[in-house]
Write a structure and sequence with these properties.
With 216 residues, the chain is α/β, with parallel strands linked by helices. It is built from 11 helices and 5 strands, in the order βαβαβαβαβααααααα. Strands 2-1-3-4-5 form a 5-stranded parallel sheet, sandwiched between helices.
């Protein structure tokens, strides 16, 4: 059986490299690709891939949100393999909650990526059992803030909110998260809108209060 794969990454050169790697395998076919979350959500429903390789960081969204949204509208849902250039506990938590089947760093070797595609396509998981246990413990103890406004934020937006609370400017946040300053500005605007705040300082105070409440 041929495994159909969809690629989501905002860097064309990365998509080309992964596609070339996967297409060299007899049992894997890349059926589509996208550079933004919006493009992925528009294209995947018609293609119905077996596996979706999703970059965590995107210019208009994040891979975790795409994973959650596409799995909610497709039956059967694709196995989502999150691919990222950095290790982040909050993004990992979001990936597990969104139903992702795997979470890999971009430093992964080609042979391991091919193997990962086959594993998740067959119903397997590449999520670290220890990381999954931490997520389950957070759910059991209720340490995740329950404010519906906070719950509406994507993992990327939550990370940016935390950096706002740390006092970082948009430029500093961009350097920290490898995002363009304009992209950070758009994220900040989205965070303020979802939280119902007009000023950045209000969001910083809100985030600080959340930290005191959940003990982090």
């Amino acid at each position: 059986m041929t495994i159909s794969v969809f690629l989501l990454d905002d860097h064309e050169i990365v998509r080309r490299g992964i596609a070339q790697l996967l297409e060299s395998e007899d049992d894997i076919q890349v059926v589509g690709e996208a550079g933004t979350g919006a493009q992925a959500m528009a294209r995947m429903p018609a293609l119905r891939p077996d596996v979706a390789i999703l970059d965590v960081r995107l210019p208009d969204s994040d891979g975790v949100t795409v994973c959650r949204d596409i799995r909610s509208i497709l039956t059967p849902p694709p196995a989502c393999l999150m691919l990222t250039s950095y290790s982040d506990d909050e993004a990992l938590f979001g990936a597990i909650m969104a139903g992702a089947s795997g979470y890999l760093l971009k430093q992964v070797t080609g042979i391991d990526l091919v193997g990962a595609v086959r594993i998740v396509a067959g119903g397997g998981s590449l999520l670290d059992p220890k990381a999954t246990a931490v997520v389950l413990e957070r759910l059991r103890t209720g340490t995740e803030p329950t404010d519906p406004r906070y719950a509406s934020l994507s993992p990327q937006e939550r990370r940016i909110l935390g950096l706002i609370a740390d006092g970082l400017t948009n430029r500093q946040i961009g350097a920290e998260m490898f995002l363009a300053e304009k992209t950070v500005k758009n994220y900040v605007s989205s965070v303020l809108h979802k939280l119902g705040f007009a000023r950045r300082t209000e969001a910083a105070v809100y985030a600080a209060d959340l930290r005191r409440t959940d003990g982090s």
